[in-house]
Write a structure and sequence with these properties.
Shape: globular
EC number: 1.-.-.-
Enzyme class: oxidoreductase
Protein name: FAD-dependent oxidoreductase
Number of helices: 10
Largest sheet: 9 strands, mixed
GO molecular function: oxidoreductase activity
CATH topology of the largest domain: FAD/NAD(P)-binding domain
Strand content: 15-25%
InterPro entries: FAD-dep_OxRdtase, FAD/NAD-bd_sf
Length: 398
């Protein structure tokens, strides 16, 4: 079976890795992965990339995410001990009411689901993150089974292994339309004018998916990233090396942080995300990256590193916040989700099973399901929702 996967983010790369060299139906899978830039250059490469199942509001979705954490552990084991995957724990605190109460309630609900969540003392926080200086009197939670993935490196590893298994990887070329024969999708037209024929086309193009699917008359309920004030864009910044200052993921009221494989820090903040859209001028992005660094230095007094890179990010946000995964019409399958970093490898496993036979675990997430649109929260905090990111590179000196 000829399979063309559009989009080289974590979903597309994990799918290519999972399907290359395998069988689909009665024949071998011939996989082609197409990306408009390079694998990992979009949302997956700029994401805060917190691995978690920290939302107890929907037990079924929570279970999907718990299974996804296990899939990451198995996948990382296949690569040895890669520096791009770490289970470091996540520490979060709240210092005002009613957020203190909300955090305590979340910990209790997660614990009742069997998730590793606990409230900790200030002394225990100092043991976990000795360099941090949180506000006095905060309520602090710790989630020991959570961690992070460094998206660019993880995507490169998956795409590379897919290539080694026989997948073809086409970079720097967008897919401009879906090709049709009657109701069947027969492949894609590339920006070069060439056609790629396929028995199955999988759209994993993140926030670009709606535009691609529209060329075949197929709708996809994603938040409009182009609209002024859209929740889809955000901002992350990465510092130079700051070894030993941070052990794991941290969510504070003013700033979220995690380490990088090189010893730097990835920084993000809810209020600065909310103030960023596609119309935000580069000078404002630069100023917000500097603000992220100032906040990091307030929490980590020993931080002397500067911002090396910042990115405006555009997240694929389904209208109800849940994955959009499944067949749309003959020859066409969609795999688009927020929290793609957490869900990617597990969704790839489920989709591979789905292509052989209907996968019950994906039934609640079919793209043609009735959806009650509600503005999903894009931010990656354990009190506020979840984040991810894509976009234009920036450089700063702060």
């Amino acid at each position: 079976m000829r399979i063309v996967i559009i989009g080289g983010g974590i979903i597309g790369a994990a799918l290519a890795d999972r399907l290359a060299g395998g069988t689909v139906g009665e024949g071998a899978a011939e996989v082609t992965l197409v990306d408009r830039d390079r694998p990992g250059a979009g949302a997956s490469g700029a994401s805060f990339a917190w691995l978690n199942a920290n939302d107890p509001s929907d037990p079924a979705y929570h279970s999907l995410r718990v299974a996804a954490l296990g899939a990451w552990r198995r996948l990382a084991g296949e690569f040895g001990d890669p520096g791009w995957f770490r289970v470091t724990g996540n520490t979060a605190w709240a210092d005002t009411e009613p957020v203190k109460t909300l955090l305590s309630e979340r910990v209790a609900r997660l614990s009742a689901l069997g998730y590793r969540a606990e409230l900790i003392t200030a002394g225990r926080l100092r043991e976990i993150e000795p360099s941090l200086r949180p506000a006095a009197g905060a309520v602090t939670a710790h989630y020991s089974g959570e961690g992070w993935v460094h998206g660019p490196d993880a995507v490169a590893a998956l795409a590379g292994r897919a290539r080694d298994a026989g997948a073809r990887v086409i970079t720097g070329v967008p897919a401009t339309r879906l090709n049709l024969r009657g109701e069947r999708v027969t492949g894609v037209r590339l920006g070069t004018g060439d056609d790629l024929d396929a028995d199955l086309t999988i759209c994993a193009a993140g926030r670009h998916s709606a535009a691609l699917l529209a060329t075949a008359g197929v709708g996809l309920p994603l938040v409009d990233a182009e609209a002024p004030g859209s929740a889809a864009p955000g901002l992350t910044a990465t510092t130079g090396p700051a070894p030993g200052l941070l052990n794991g993921v941290v969510h504070s009221p003013a700033l979220d942080m995690r380490p990088t494989p090189e010893g730097g820090l990835v920084l993000e903040a809810a209020d600065l995300d909310e103030a960023t859209d596609l119309g935000t001028p580069p000078a404002d992005l630069h100023a917000r990256a500097a603000e992220l660094l100032d906040r990091a230095r307030a929490l980590l007094p020993g931080l002397t590193a500067r911002i090396e890179r910042f990115r405006r990010c555009v997240r694929p946000l389904p209208a109800d916040g849940r994955p959009l995964v499944g067949p749309h019409r003959p020859g066409l399958y969609t795999a688009v989700t927020h929290s793609g970093i957490t869900l990617g490898p597990h969704l790839a496993d489920l989709i591979a099973a789905d292509l052989r036979d209907e996968e019950a675990a994906l039934a609640p997430y079919r793209p043609d399901r009735p959806i009650r649109a509600e503005m999903p929260s894009a931010h990656a905090g354990p009190l506020f929702g979840y984040a991810g990111t894509e976009g234009r590179d920036g450089a700063a000196r702060s």
